[in-house]
Amino acid sequence: MSTADTTTPATPSPEHGPAPGHTGAAVPGPSHAPSPTGADAPRPALSDAKRELLRRRLASRARPRAVVPRRAPGTPVPLSFAQERLWFMEQFAPGTSAYNIPVVRRLRGTLDADALRAALDTSTARHETLRSRYPATEDGRPLLVVDPPGPAAFSLREAADEASAERIVDEAAAVPFDLDKGPLFRSLLVRLADDDHVLLLLVHHSVSDGWSSEVLLGEVLRSYAARVAGAPDPLPELAVQYGDFALWQRDRLSGERLAGELAHWSRELAGVEPLELSFSLPRPSRQTFEGAGYAFAVDRALLDRLAALGDRHDATLHMVLLAAFQLLLSRYSGQRDFAVGSPVAGRPE
Question: Which segment, 37-41, 217-221, 253-257, 289-293, is predicted with the most confidence on average?
């Protein structure tokens, strides 16, 4: 799907539509269905085993969750495991735009480009991850550098019509990032008319993801609206930064615990053969990420059947669809044991 396919009518006001990440679904209330045994029927006593299980579950819920502490000023910040993986992929296949994450919105109404630029600068200063880059040390290891706050990478283009705007946005979204020199966050405003613009926010996956990019867009529009109204910036200082999380993550997953995780997955993945599929054309020696995507729709009746299948087997819809995909790969390859990766970040199932 081209980046312009995500363009939807919007206004520069942050009040347009639901907040980022909000589905608009109502929270279901408690069920008031009558008891099949009557409202006053005595309830059976729990067995000792069930009581003990209930006690353990309630006790586990009462445990406080670990809180990411804020690091002391001047503390060196490592790459998180996710950032290190993406840095490695860049070394493996340099110059690719496969990990570019675009968010595109159509902005209708009078727009103050200077106020928008200032809002982008504010968000860049607020999030140190948007100012991050990864130069390599002499021994070839990545080093995380957080540049001081400064103007965000912003450009303004003119477009004669929607087709031209779509082409400009697609071309801008396909330009690779330089993980060594940065910046890893760019923005583009395409002007169709005085009251019609297209805004592109583009980040590298090592500093953001799809969900976070939508949140970033909401922040920029809120800050823009405040500036236009002459109000102070509505966004408070962040309690912790991504670098604080990276330090916390490395501290929690290191030493014997990390060795145990690596040993576990080494055993689980031992002997897994690469998936061998037949293609009409030979695959290149190095992955180019230039393959096309295939989109299809699932009607409501089929969706309900898939969800019901999952319910019968205590599985989520994601698990059912992933199993179907693996079955398809098995039929095409003739293999029964292979690995399929699936992103899990931000997925509540």
Answer: 217-221
Give the three-class secondary structure for 189.
strand
User: Any idea what the Cα angle at residue 211 is, between residues 209 and 217, rounded to 5°?
Assistant: 95
CA gap 220, 222 in Å, rounded = 5
**What burial letters (b/e) apply to 78-98, b meaning 16+ CB within 10 Å?**
bbbeebbebbebbeeeeebee
135 C-beta neighbours (distance < 10 Å), count:
12
DSSP string of 327-349, one letter each residue: HHHHHHH--S--------TT---
Nearest to 209 by CA among 245, 234, 190, 184: 184
Q: What is the pLDDT of residue 341?
A: 87
Q: CA–CA separation, 270 vs 74, rounded Å?
A: 42
DSSP H helical ranges for 158-209? 162-173
Q: Give the range among 25-29, 62-66, 104-108 with minimum mean pLDDT.
A: 25-29
pLDDT tens-digit readout, 263-275: 999 999 999 988 9
Element containing residue 184 per DSSP (H, E) = none
Helix, strand, coil % over all residues of the chain, rounded to 5? 40, 10, 50
Enter the tokens of residue 88.
């490695």
Q: Which amino acid is at 298?
A: V
Give Rg (Cα) of the chain.
25
Nearest CA to 69 out of 246, 236, 215, 212 is that of 246
Decide: 94 and 288 in contact? Cβ < 8 Å.
no
- Sheet of 9-10: strand order equals 9-10, 100-108, 196-204, 185-193, 153-158
